[in-house]
Amino acid sequence: MSRKKILVVEDNEDNRLILVYRLRKIGDFDILEATHGQEALDIIAATPPDLMFLDLKLPILDGWETARRIRKMEGNGPRLPIIALTAQAMAGDEEKALSAGCDDYITKPIVDASIVKEKLRKFLP
Questions:
Q1: pLDDT for 70-83, tens place per residue?
Q2: Domain residues of the chain, as ranges?
Q3: How many CA atoms lie within 13 A of 44 on its CB side?
Q4: How confident is the model at residue 113 (pLDDT cuts 50, 70, 90)?
Q5: 4-43 burial string, b = 16+ CB within 10 Å, else e?
Q6: What is 5-120's CATH number, 3.30.70.100, 3.40.50.2300, 1.10.260.40, 3.40.50.1970?
Q7: What is the mean pLDDT of the chain?
């Protein structure tokens, strides 16, 4: 069986490195990284991941618009599990992320690795 591919889209290098580190400690995944929404769309078109962690506040193309565009893509786009990430959890952000096409939501910084494990169990069979 092939390894699961996880795409981490985060413009803040420290936050990206922390999440990638946690994922590597949890399991043997192929981890793809992007720093903005357009880069994420390009990666998904070339190498569709099995799961995506998507920061909502990104340069060039924000996470909300990125999620909307993924849901309109051919192939795996409509089914790709997207977990939204945000550091500034404002009232209504979770609902806004879910209505944009995200499947779940985590606030940053992700200090508890069990949260990441729970999401992996939920979305990666």
A1: 999 988 778 999 99
A2: 5-120
A3: 30
A4: confident
A5: bbbbbbbbbeebbebbbebbeeeeebebbbbbbbbbbbeb
A6: 3.40.50.2300
A7: 91
Tell me the CA distances in angstroms from 59 to 66, 93, 109, one per residue in order. Answer: 11, 18, 19
| The pLDDT of residue 94 is above 90 | no
The two structure tokens encoding residue 14: 């420290």
Tokens 């985590």 locate to 106
Q: What is the mean pLDDT of residues 86-109?
A: 83
Task: Give dist(CA 57, CA 50) in Å, integer.
Answer: 22
Between the two ends of the chain, the Cα-to-Cα distance in Å is: 12
Tell the burial category of 78 from Cβ atoms under 10 Å away from its Cβ (0-12, 13-18, 19+): exposed
User: Is the pLDDT reported for residue 36 higher than 90?
Assistant: yes
| Three-class SS state of 7 | strand
